[in-house]
Here is the input.
Amino acid sequence: MTNETPDSEVAAPTSLTVPVAANTGAIAAVGLDLQEGKVIPRKQVLSWALWDWATQPFNTVLLTFVWVPSFLTSHFFLAADVAAQGLQADGSYIKCDSAAAGNAYCDGIGQLAANLGWGITAAGILIALLAPVMGQRADAAGRQKLQLAIFTGLLVLCQFGLFFVDEGQQWFLLGVSLIAIGSVVSEIAGVNYNALLVSVSTRKTVGKVSGLGWGFGYLGGIVALAVVVGAIVGGLLDGNVAWTFRIVALGCTIWTIVFAIPILLNVPEPVSLGVVRKVNFFASYIELAKSIARLWKETRPTFWFLLASAVYRDGLAAVFTFGSVIAGAVFGFDFIDLVIFGIVLNLVAGLSTILSGRLDDRIGPKPVILFAIGGLVVCTLTVFFAAELGKPLFWVVGIILAMFVGPAQSSSRSFLARVTPAGREGEIFGLYATTGRAASWMASLLWGIFIAIAANQILYGILGITLVLVVGFVLLVFVRAPEHARA
Here is the structure.
């Protein structure tokens, strides 16, 4: 990105000023065009990016590296006699690789992992039903920030609820339910957050700003994980007791509250063009069907991109959701290993995402996405076929994998922002969330099926994730960006 200014503001380039069509409902009126020639205060950009930082502990600390793999899908939620069969003389638990097939402890861990997959699948169905309608209603009312505040608040409540989940089989359902509901409200909040991207970027800066947001998220994950490590090394927390994970959930709650405030105070609503009709909740589904029909008729590349991204983004989500489960159960990563692993991966992902945002603005988002997905497929297959090399392999492949996930996510958001009709940001990003979640049953379901077919061997679940990534890659190859986006 070559348009940086040394002062406190981000200048919107004026060399590509495109007037909005007289018919504001026209699909060609892209929201980013409204920003051309406008100076965007750096404070607004940073405040917007901080929301990724604020909500990252849910994804990084709770879902990916700490709470779910080291607590929810661990011996804490097995019957005492079953858990005892996995305990070794040194106090650690056995690795559940192919050599341990048939062991009652590993069967139990595999069942917990599969049940987590069913919970994530249920969450995906709810998101598919709610996200586009909620986004559409926010567009109609011109209140994306209000919805963002409401669903961020619900995410805070879900995280706080995890504080009350204790060890024992009777608490597992509550833990999975809160994680699933948290995923739902986080995704819907993300719809409104993404819609606000057009308020803080222009056509020529959207890749950089989108990458900055994702980068802030990953860097926030590093800091949050580092705090957890410091607390354990300093003796404040003990990774072998359930109370530690309850305290971690409480800390994530406070983190989200504090860092979510700037976006609500400093980022303006996107310009409302009144192109979305105000209707009641159920009539919103009729309007949604009309919107999809318009996309098919007037901007088919956007329609096909939503479809292709639905598939590969489900694979991206599964990499993070289930990758740490594989690390803990198959490769023997303990609590400290997972946290340090998470710090390194977030650092790599954050830096690569920020850098890829500049590349996105120069060559376009599609080449970035394709390269990233291809790299992820190679990484997942390497883990499966070379698993006997153990923990060192997973470390190396994990670091390489982290270089690809963030850029794919950031450039996907950038691609859609470039082709979103003005005034329909919430609705289109709602469709973005919905199409993703409409396909979200794929990776989690295939994860569970492959594990079940392989007699609860968790490693085989990675084949389901790989299959989803390959299908998404092939679909994206045939998506052609509209001329105004490719230019």
Observations:
- Strands lie at 9-11, 39-41.
- The chain has 18 helices and two strands.
